[in-house]
Design brief:
Elements: H1 17-26, H2 34-48, E1 53-57, H3 60-75, E2 81-85, H4 90-98, E3 102-106, H5 117-127, E4 131-134, H6 146-156, E5 159-163, E6 185-189, E7 202-206, H7 209-219, H8 240-249, H9 253-270, E8 275-276, E9 289-292, H10 301-310, H11 327-332, E10 334-335, H12 339-344, E11 348-351, H13 359-373
Parallel strand pairs: 2-3, 2-4, 3-10, 4-5, 5-6
Antiparallel strand pairs: 1-7, 6-7, 8-9, 9-11
Helix pairs in contact: 2-8, 3-4, 9-13
Bound molecules: ligand T4K.
Ligand T4K binds near residues 163, 165, 189, 193 and 318.
Pfam family, one: DegT_DnrJ_EryC1
Protein name: dTDP-4-amino-4,6-dideoxygalactose transaminase
Organism: Ancylobacter vacuolatus
């Protein structure tokens, strides 16, 4: 049997011939056209209870960059540092670096794998005004406590941008779409490999409509109505075609997330020797199944991954190497103490997950895992 890590399943545009024909006939292909507008407004009501506003973007890396720039520029912070967890994807720290900030890489919590609050507090006390922005990652779609960050921002004036790349479809402890009510920018990816799969795309949500209006202007070169740049800008717009994929994805996203949650629960029940993340919300939009190999596994992770591959099962190792281990970030970043990251990262393996996964495939993965550890 062959089990890939992921099988991206954006909606098939070929099944939406009428929508495609209408799109082509409209003559509008980008620059916040009617499909983008329809998607933003439906996403706002379906996921965020109609509070605040949403903005689409071409991908989450650019959206993060835009949101960091907005937070720093309009927050009036002069600091040179950005707090970024080391246990995340490169995009989080790249966004800070493109804004001219030096990432300070910090640790995560041992069970939720969310960014460490103790480290955030300690680093804020140590560096104060020198920290321009904090970029916590909602690890693998787990829920961050947004009130903590809102209070930190209110108390210190620091900018906060939430990297929620994997969280579209996640529900928080109160059952709301993760991010609902956030006073800061929350950035979600709609990359093909995410649960909310399109091709390339992203969304920024904020409860503050004015912030989204500013970001929209920044995403369109910072232009006002007379095409005069009024603020830092770039082109971060989502084209109409991927917006159509996003609009139609909304029709099925709940079913997709629920099915993935069922599969995740089956893995958890079958792989008792592996360690799973403690979830803080009521539903996570699982992109894959991150687990920690048993501590007493007795074989290096690379051997395990190779043995699984020989049995036809592809595994991932997100996020290992973690950022402080990657040459570019080693060069440009400041590294804080990372005891939890250092303990977790070498054991992490991402198990296969996709919408159409059969339970027989999942059983095969679990049996292969047990054999390969022997
Ligand atoms: N912040 C965080 C925390 C993130 O995790 C990410 C992205 C971002 C920010 C930035 O979001 P975007 O700018 O991408 O919107 C993949 C995704 O490309 C990336 O979006 C994602 N995180 C990351 C966790 O995973 P790679 O380098 O691992 O992709 P790749 O090409 O190895 O693909 C992964 C698997 O999916 C492979 O087994 C192949 C398969 N695949 C992939 C694509 C694109 C397919 O079967 N078909 C496909 O079309 O980054």
């Amino acid at each position: 049997m062959r089990v890939p890590l992921l099988k991206p399943r954006p909606i098939r545009l070929s099944h939406y011939a009428d929508d495609l024909a209408a799109h082509e006939a409209s003559g509008v292909f980008s620059n916040f056209g009617p499909i983008n507008t329809a998607f933003e407004s439906r996403l706002l009501s379906d996921v965020f209870g109609g509070d605040g506003a949403c903005l689409t973007a071409c991908n989450a890396t650019i959206a993060l960059l835009l949101a960091v720039k907005e937070a720093v520029h309009f927050g009036g912070r002069r600091g040179r540092y950005a707090l970024v967890p080391s246990f995340t994807f490169a995009a989080t720290a790249h966004a800070a670096a493109w804004c001219g900030l030096t990432p300070i890489l910090y640790d995560i919590e041992p069970e939720t794998w969310l960014p460490s609050r103790e480290a955030e507090q300690r680093l804020m006390e140590r560096h104060g005004e020198d920290i321009a922005v904090i970029l916590p990652y909602a690890t693998y779609g787990n829920c961050l406590d947004l009130n903590w960050y809102a209070a930190l921002a209110a108390r210190t004036g620091v900018g906060v941008v939430i990297d929620a790349a994997a969280s579209l479809g996640t529900r928080d402890a109160a059952g709301h779409g993760f991010g609902h009510g956030a006073p800061m920018s929350v950035v979600y990816s709609m990359h093909a490999t995410k649960t909310f799969a399109t091709s390339e795309g992203a969304v920024i949500y904020c409860a503050d409509k004015q912030r989204i209006a500013r970001l929209r202007q920044m995403a369109n070169f910072g232009f006002d109505g007379a095409r005069a740049a009024q603020m830092p800008g770039l082109n971060a717009k989502l084209a109409e075609l991927p917006a159509l994929q996003a609009l139609r994805k909304l029709d099925e996203i709940d079913r997709v997330v629920e099915r993935r949650a069922e599969l995740y629960a089956l893995y958890r029940a079958r792989l008792q020797d592996f360690t799973f993340q403690r979830h803080t919300g009521t539903r996570a939009a699982h992109q894959f199944v991150p687990t920690l190999m048993p501590e007493e596994a007795g074989i290096p992770r690379a051997t395990f991954v190779q043995r699984m591959k020989e049995r036809g099962v592809d595994l991932g190792t997100y996020f290992s190497p973690h950022l402080a281990e990657q040459p570019y970030f080693k060069d440009i970043a400041v590294v804080d103490e990372l005891p939890v990251t250092a303990a977790i990262a070498p054991r992490v393996v991402a198990l296969p997950l996709y919408d159409t996964m059969e339970e027989a495939e999942l059983r095969y993965v679990c049996e292969a895992a047990a054999d390969c550890l022997r």
